[in-house]
Protein backbone atom coordinates (compact mmCIF):
# COMPACT_ATOMS: atom_id res chain seq x y z
CA UNK A 1 0.00 0.00 0.00
CA UNK A 2 1.27 3.48 -0.88
CA UNK A 3 0.47 6.12 1.72
CA UNK A 4 1.94 9.62 1.45
CA UNK A 5 1.60 12.16 4.25
CA UNK A 6 2.27 15.85 3.71
CA UNK A 7 3.00 17.98 6.76
CA UNK A 8 3.51 21.65 6.07
CA UNK A 9 4.07 25.10 7.46
CA UNK A 10 1.13 27.41 6.83
CA UNK A 11 1.64 29.29 3.58
CA UNK A 12 4.40 27.00 2.32
CA UNK A 13 2.28 25.52 -0.46
CA UNK A 14 2.10 22.04 1.04
CA UNK A 15 -1.56 21.58 0.24
CA UNK A 16 -0.98 22.46 -3.43
CA UNK A 17 1.92 20.02 -3.61
CA UNK A 18 -0.25 17.27 -2.14
CA UNK A 19 -3.08 17.93 -4.59
CA UNK A 20 -0.73 18.00 -7.58
CA UNK A 21 0.97 14.81 -6.38
CA UNK A 22 -2.43 13.17 -6.23
CA UNK A 23 -3.04 14.11 -9.86
CA UNK A 24 0.40 12.99 -11.05
CA UNK A 25 0.42 9.70 -9.15
CA UNK A 26 -3.26 8.98 -9.66
CA UNK A 27 -4.09 8.25 -6.03
CA UNK A 28 -6.72 9.57 -3.63
CA UNK A 29 -6.27 12.92 -1.87
CA UNK A 30 -7.72 13.76 1.54
CA UNK A 31 -7.66 17.12 3.27
CA UNK A 32 -10.82 19.12 4.00
CA UNK A 33 -12.79 15.92 3.41
CA UNK A 34 -11.58 14.78 6.83
CA UNK A 35 -13.03 17.89 8.49
CA UNK A 36 -16.31 17.37 6.66
CA UNK A 37 -16.57 13.79 7.88
CA UNK A 38 -15.75 14.73 11.49
CA UNK A 39 -18.36 17.50 11.46
CA UNK A 40 -20.93 15.15 9.96
CA UNK A 41 -20.38 12.40 12.53
CA UNK A 42 -20.23 14.81 15.47
CA UNK A 43 -23.08 17.00 14.19
CA UNK A 44 -20.90 20.10 14.43
CA UNK A 45 -20.19 23.08 12.19
CA UNK A 46 -17.25 22.46 9.84
CA UNK A 47 -15.69 25.85 10.60
CA UNK A 48 -15.79 25.09 14.33
CA UNK A 49 -14.11 21.71 13.80
CA UNK A 50 -11.44 23.17 11.53
CA UNK A 51 -10.68 26.05 13.91
CA UNK A 52 -10.53 23.78 16.97
CA UNK A 53 -8.13 21.35 15.33
CA UNK A 54 -5.91 24.10 13.92
CA UNK A 55 -5.72 25.72 17.35
CA UNK A 56 -4.61 22.47 18.95
CA UNK A 57 -4.53 21.82 22.68
CA UNK A 58 -1.96 22.40 25.37
CA UNK A 59 -1.90 19.31 27.60
CA UNK A 60 0.43 19.02 30.58
CA UNK A 61 1.58 15.62 29.39
CA UNK A 62 2.62 13.87 26.20
CA UNK A 63 0.23 11.39 24.60
CA UNK A 64 1.98 8.55 22.84
CA UNK A 65 0.47 7.52 19.52
CA UNK A 66 -0.11 3.99 20.83
CA UNK A 67 -2.64 5.35 23.33
CA UNK A 68 -6.28 5.76 22.42
CA UNK A 69 -7.54 9.35 22.61
CA UNK A 70 -10.71 8.03 24.22
CA UNK A 71 -8.77 7.24 27.38
CA UNK A 72 -7.47 10.79 27.81
CA UNK A 73 -8.97 12.91 30.55
CA UNK A 74 -8.19 16.47 29.50
CA UNK A 75 -10.47 19.48 29.98
CA UNK A 76 -10.58 20.30 26.30
CA UNK A 77 -13.32 19.35 23.79
CA UNK A 78 -10.67 19.28 21.08
CA UNK A 79 -9.53 15.91 22.44
CA UNK A 80 -12.75 14.30 21.19
CA UNK A 81 -12.25 15.89 17.79
CA UNK A 82 -8.70 14.55 17.66
CA UNK A 83 -10.03 11.08 18.50
CA UNK A 84 -12.56 11.31 15.67
CA UNK A 85 -9.87 12.56 13.31
CA UNK A 86 -7.62 9.65 14.29
CA UNK A 87 -10.34 7.13 13.48
CA UNK A 88 -11.27 8.71 10.16
CA UNK A 89 -7.66 8.93 8.99
CA UNK A 90 -7.21 5.23 9.70
CA UNK A 91 -10.43 4.41 7.85
CA UNK A 92 -9.24 6.37 4.80
CA UNK A 93 -5.85 4.66 4.81
CA UNK A 94 -7.50 1.25 4.94
CA UNK A 95 -9.30 2.02 1.68
CA UNK A 96 -6.04 2.05 -0.29
CA UNK A 97 -3.30 4.25 -1.74
CA UNK A 98 -3.73 7.90 -0.78
CA UNK A 99 -2.20 11.24 0.14
CA UNK A 100 -3.25 12.81 3.43
CA UNK A 101 -2.50 16.43 4.27
CA UNK A 102 -1.40 17.32 7.79
CA UNK A 103 -3.24 16.15 10.92
CA UNK A 104 -0.24 14.16 12.21
CA UNK A 105 -1.12 11.44 9.70
CA UNK A 106 2.53 10.43 9.47
CA UNK A 107 2.42 9.42 13.14
CA UNK A 108 -1.10 8.00 13.20
CA UNK A 109 -0.38 5.83 10.16
CA UNK A 110 3.07 4.69 11.24
CA UNK A 111 2.07 1.03 10.84
CA UNK A 112 1.70 1.63 7.09
CA UNK A 113 5.25 3.01 6.83
CA UNK A 114 4.10 6.09 4.86
CA UNK A 115 6.29 8.30 2.70
CA UNK A 116 6.53 11.37 4.93
CA UNK A 117 6.95 14.80 3.36
CA UNK A 118 7.47 18.09 5.19
CA UNK A 119 7.05 21.36 3.27
CA UNK A 120 8.48 24.63 4.55
CA UNK A 121 9.55 28.07 3.35
CA UNK A 122 10.93 31.34 4.64
CA UNK A 123 8.47 33.81 6.14
CA UNK A 124 8.60 36.22 3.20
CA UNK A 125 7.54 33.48 0.76
CA UNK A 126 4.79 32.26 3.08
CA UNK A 127 3.38 35.76 3.47
CA UNK A 128 3.43 36.21 -0.33
CA UNK A 129 1.56 32.92 -0.87
CA UNK A 130 -1.04 33.80 1.74
CA UNK A 131 -1.59 37.19 0.15
CA UNK A 132 -1.85 35.69 -3.35
CA UNK A 133 -4.33 33.10 -2.14
CA UNK A 134 -6.49 35.71 -0.41
CA UNK A 135 -6.47 37.97 -3.45
CA UNK A 136 -7.91 41.46 -3.22
CA UNK A 137 -10.08 40.46 -0.26
CA UNK A 138 -7.16 40.51 2.16
CA UNK A 139 -6.74 43.76 4.08
CA UNK A 140 -4.20 42.34 6.52
CA UNK A 141 -0.73 43.82 6.84
CA UNK A 142 2.34 41.64 6.44
CA UNK A 143 2.83 41.68 10.21
CA UNK A 144 -0.75 40.51 10.75
CA UNK A 145 -0.31 37.70 8.22
CA UNK A 146 2.95 36.67 9.87
CA UNK A 147 1.21 36.57 13.24
CA UNK A 148 -1.53 34.34 11.80
CA UNK A 149 1.05 32.01 10.24
CA UNK A 150 2.86 31.63 13.56
CA UNK A 151 -0.39 31.03 15.45
CA UNK A 152 -1.54 28.30 13.07
CA UNK A 153 1.84 26.58 13.03
CA UNK A 154 1.94 26.72 16.82
CA UNK A 155 -1.40 24.89 16.93
CA UNK A 156 -0.21 22.29 14.45
CA UNK A 157 2.94 21.70 16.45
CA UNK A 158 0.97 21.44 19.69
CA UNK A 159 -1.36 18.71 18.41
CA UNK A 160 1.48 16.87 16.66
CA UNK A 161 3.91 16.91 19.56
CA UNK A 162 1.29 15.39 21.85
CA UNK A 163 1.46 12.07 20.05
CA UNK A 164 4.93 12.03 18.52
CA UNK A 165 8.35 11.38 19.99
CA UNK A 166 9.76 13.70 17.31
CA UNK A 167 8.90 17.40 17.23
CA UNK A 168 6.74 18.74 14.40
CA UNK A 169 9.03 20.08 11.69
CA UNK A 170 12.10 18.20 12.92
CA UNK A 171 13.68 17.15 9.63
CA UNK A 172 14.78 13.82 11.13
CA UNK A 173 11.13 12.75 11.29
CA UNK A 174 10.49 12.91 7.52
CA UNK A 175 11.60 11.09 4.39
CA UNK A 176 11.67 14.22 2.23
CA UNK A 177 11.77 17.89 3.22
CA UNK A 178 10.92 20.45 0.56
CA UNK A 179 11.88 24.12 0.82
CA UNK A 180 9.46 26.01 -1.44
CA UNK A 181 11.09 29.42 -0.95
CA UNK A 182 11.05 31.15 -4.35
CA UNK A 183 9.99 27.88 -5.99
CA UNK A 184 7.23 27.24 -8.54
CA UNK A 185 5.20 24.41 -7.04
CA UNK A 186 3.82 23.24 -10.37
CA UNK A 187 7.36 22.83 -11.70
CA UNK A 188 8.82 20.96 -8.71
CA UNK A 189 5.92 18.54 -8.17
CA UNK A 190 7.00 16.07 -10.92
CA UNK A 191 10.40 15.71 -9.22
CA UNK A 192 8.75 15.06 -5.86
CA UNK A 193 6.48 12.49 -7.50
CA UNK A 194 9.45 10.68 -9.06
CA UNK A 195 11.25 10.68 -5.71
CA UNK A 196 8.16 9.14 -4.11
CA UNK A 197 7.91 6.47 -6.82
CA UNK A 198 11.54 5.50 -6.29
CA UNK A 199 11.09 5.47 -2.51
CA UNK A 200 8.22 2.99 -2.72
CA UNK A 201 10.10 0.93 -5.32
CA UNK A 202 13.17 0.69 -3.08
CA UNK A 203 11.01 -0.25 -0.10
CA UNK A 204 9.48 -3.15 -2.01
CA UNK A 205 12.83 -4.40 -3.31
Global outline: globular
* Percent range of helical residues: 40-55%
Tally the structural domains. Answer: 1
CATH superfamily: P-loop containing nucleotide triphosphate hydrolases
Low-pLDDT stretches: 59-75
What is the structural class? alpha/beta
Would you give the CATH topology? Answer: Rossmann fold
**C-alpha termini separation:** 14 Å
Overall average pLDDT: 87
Q: Strand-residue fraction? A: 5-15%
Strand arrangement within the widest β-sheet reads: 2-3-1-4-5
Please give the count of helices: 8
**Oligomeric category:** single chain
Order of helices and strands: EHEHHHEHEHHEH
Number of strands: 5
Radius of gyration over C-alpha positions, nearest whole angstrom: 17 Å
- Largest β sheet strand count, sense and barrel closure: 5 strands, parallel
Label the CATH architecture: 3-Layer(aba) Sandwich
